[in-house]
Amino acid sequence: MNHRSALLALHFGALFFGLAGVFGKLANASAVVIVLGRAAFAVAALMVFLGLARRWQRLQASDWGRLLGAGVLLTAHWVTFFMAVKMAGVAVATLGFASFPAFTVLLEGLVFRERIRRNEILLVLLVSIGLVLVTPTFDPASQATGGLLWAIFSGLTFAVLSLVNRASGNRVPPVQAALCQNAVVALCLLPIAWPQLPAVSTVDWLWIGLLGVFCTGLAHSLFVASLAVIKARTAAVVFALEPVYGIAFAWAIFSETPTLRMLLGGVLILAAIILSTRKAATGPK
Question: 200 or 48: whose pLDDT is higher?
Answer without folding.
Answer: 200
